[in-house]
Amino acid sequence: MKAERAADKNSPKPILRMVDAIVIIVGIVVGAGIFRTPSLVAANTGTWELFLSVWLLGGLVSLIGALCYAELTTTFPNTGGDYHFLMQAFGKRFAFLFAWARASVIQTGSIALLAYIIGDYSSQLYSLGAYSPAIYAALVVAVLTIVNIVGVKFGTGVQKILLAIQFIGLLLVVITGFFFDPSATTLTTLPTVGGDATTTAVGLAMVFVLLTFGGWNEAGYISAELRAGSRKMVNVLVMSILIITAIYLLINAAFLHVLGIERMAASEAVGVDLMRATMGETGVILIGVLVVMAALTSVNATIFTGARTNYALGRDFKLFASLGKWNAKISAPVNALIVQGVIALALIGLGALTRDGFQSMVDFTAPVFWFFFLAIGVSLFVLRKKKPHIPRPFKVPFYPFTPLIFCGSCSYLLYSSLTYTGIGALVGVAVLLLGTLFFFFVR
To answer: Which helix (H) or strand (E) holds 199?
Structure first.
């Protein structure tokens, strides 16, 4: 009896409010990507109508995926999130492989690439030498890991502050785009694409859009910590996707209003071009700070949720038992956070050797991420058949068509991530396969 009480004491408690969960999800998704991908989407759509339509479609596909996740999180609430769903559907060995991939590729790679965004922009303001981006990235990971080790309340408090600053900055971009007149002189110096430089490739445009929407699935990792109960995860997911879609449409409409579709397609930094055209070099500095704040918000939220998978791995497999220790006093998996931070720092070091840290981390993570995302969609079908009698507080509407659309989207993005990325994708797949060697030691 005492052992049960001790185990309960050292396990996650439902202390997060709905607003905390929404803040975490929105903070993960609305990152620095929205200041890079719009130009790529514009280059593959060619008209403003199609451009805005694919962003709206991205929100719809994300909402469909969120509804699938809502059934899983309300039926099987657990701090392990995706890891727990995959274990219920396919068994411990496949779940272990996912936890291995998340610890060594998916989550740690995401932390590293987001940290590199901060490093790249910070180096433009003040360089620390040849490896300046990597140094800034490493400092960010180290500091935010410590912030989350201090405890869940402090971590979510920092997240709210970062998100508030980020939203002020996003609002500034929208207001500037709609209400400040662009300089005619500046606009004439901006490049435009001509003739065949823009193409209508909606499929490729959707790859970039859905990558920008990525991250809402992290809700699964906090379902057991929601004070209102796991049933409220439906509201958290739907509200988060609606907020994110509205933000993206507003920002992209502001970009269009100032730059137009052709200048957007030719731009390498649409946010910088917008602010330079409306506010001059002062605006360029402001947008640089905004991108850093957006990336900081995403890094902090990704560190928070990522450690939950490592905790679940240690809880279920004796080989990694040290990761499964939960500090009840601060309500955080300290060992899991430390290990995650060390791996992310190692990947930052690897990125520094390639001299193109951000792109290397994108290539490294994408195929493995979409493979397991597809597996999550399939698990919904498996669990419907395998465990039909378990009460389901929420069922995905229009089953089986809704999850089929979700699985189809994941399959296409898996194919695209293997086709369009470089050798980094093969390295990520190789690390995933390395995890199968542990099968012989897993009990």
So the answer is: none
Amino acid at 363: D
CA 278 from centre of chain? 30
Q: Do the beta carbons of residue 336 and residue 310 sit within 8 Å? A: yes
- Structural domain harbouring 226: 2-440
Which one-letter DSSP state was computed for residue 81? Answer: T
CA gap 147, 125 in Å, rounded: 25
pLDDT of 4 reads 44
Rounded to two decimals, the pTM is 0.75
Q: What is the DSSP string of 66-80?
A: HHHHHHHHHHS--TT
Residue whose pair of structure tokens reads 């990152």 in the numeric block: 31
The arithmetic mean of pLDDT across residues 386-409, rounded, is 90
Q: Measuring CA to CA, which residue among 424, 423, 425 is closest to residue 415?
A: 425
Q: Return d(Cα 312, Cα 102) in angstroms, integer.
A: 12
Residue type present at position 305: T
Confidence of residue 15 (pLDDT cuts 50, 70, 90): low
Looking at the structure of the chain, the number of domains it has is: 1
Both tokens assigned to 308:
């939950």
Contact, 274 vs 146, CB < 8 A?
Answer: no
The pLDDT of residue 107 is above 80: yes
Q: Residues 274-297: what's their mean pLDDT?
A: 80
For the chain, what is the mean pLDDT? 79
From CA 80, how far away is CA 305, in angstroms rounded?
A: 9
CATH number of residue 90's parent domain: 1.20.1740.10
Residue tagged 């990336």 (tokens): 295
Say what angle helices 132-150 and 357-386 make with each other, to 10 degrees.
Answer: 40
Of 244, 279, 276, 274, give the one whose Cα is nearest residue 260: 274
Higher pLDDT, 233 or 405: 405
Whose CA is closest to 313, among 164, 97, 148?
97
Angle between helices 270-279 and 152-179 (to 10 degrees): 50
